[in-house]
Amino acid sequence: MIDRRAPSDKVLSRDAATIEQLAGGTIDVAIVLGTGLSTALHQHWSFTALPYDRLLGIPVAPLLGHAGEVMVGVWRGKRVAAFAGRVHLYQGFSAQQVTATVRLAAEAGAGTILLTNAAGAINESYAAGDLMLVSDQINMTGHNPLVALPQQNLFLDCSELYSERLRAHVRAAAGSQRLHEGVYAGLLGPTYETPAEARWLRTIGADAVGMSTVLEAIVAKYRGLNTLGISVITNHAGAPATEHDAVNAAAVKAGDRLAELIDAFLMHV
Predict the structure, then answer these.
(1) Could you read off the pLDDT of 7-21 as tens digits, one per residue?
(2) Per-residue model confidence as pLDDT tens digits over 212-263
(3) Half-sphere exposure at residue 72, Cβ-oriented, CA atoms within 13 angstroms
């Protein structure tokens, strides 16, 4: 029986073969779409959608804003696998499970990955609907996906988790569009930040905050993938009456702008 709680490389290799068959070859680029961001692919309905429950190593857990499928197709001449939705530590999943999509992307041949998320603004100059290139991260989840792996390359150099080269290309392509660049703080969740926590995060250098991405970026680095991170700002962290429905709606609204950045990103991979 396949154990989705601890997906092995062998199981993920079988899933990779399924994705490669749909793509017509190994994947060039993988994309992980966060809360409400599946709409960024609405112009690419020619992609083939494969539900996560058809894959053996990807955890499945329904959550608003996460379609729970991998969309496979060609975009800008690149074979792309877009994971529409992710699972989170706060849902009771392990660090190995929440990073299974990244491991699968690497198994399918991807050399580059785009990690997206919906995030709360810590930087007071940010507004809902803004986009932020992630330049660095602060992992405050209390977890690390490399714990208990075989003793090889565990002491990972994390000085550049997010590719400066890819960020430079996207900045140039964005032109005069409003595009920030900053530090993303990843928290365990599921509660949103208190006002005091938001002030503290600002003090330690965070510009945006969410409940995902940071573990995925570590695994991407470990597996040798070039990584770009984009946060869609959906709310102000620590503000009153923050609700998941509203965060999801704000992310959906920003889908077209995110799609433009993804298009620019794929031109330079």
Answers:
(1) 788 899 999 999 999
(2) 999 999 999 999 999 999 999 998 887 765 666 766 677 667 777 888 888 8
(3) 23
Q: Which residue has the tokens 């992980």?
A: 32
Alpha helices in the chain (DSSP H): 9-23, 95-98, 100-107, 164-174, 195-203, 214-222, 244-253, 255-267
| 54/12 Cα distance (integer angstroms) | 12
Higher pLDDT, 57 or 7: 57
- Whether the CB-CB separation of 100 and 12 falls below 8 Å is answered with yes
Q: Which residue has the tokens 């620590």?
A: 238
Closest to 111 in 3D by CA, of 223, 11, 213: 223
Residue ranges of domains in the chain, CATH in brackets: 9-267 (3.40.50.1580)
CA 29 – CA 79 distance, rounded (Å): 6
- CB under 8 Å to 37, separation ≥6 — which residues? 65, 84, 116, 117, 118, 232, 251, 252, 254, 255, 258
Answer positive or negative: Cα dihedral of 41, 208, 141, 157: positive
pTM of whole model > 0.90?
yes
In sequence order, the β-bridge partners of residue 82 are 31, 71
Both structure tokens of 63 = 């959550």
Strand partners, 73: 80
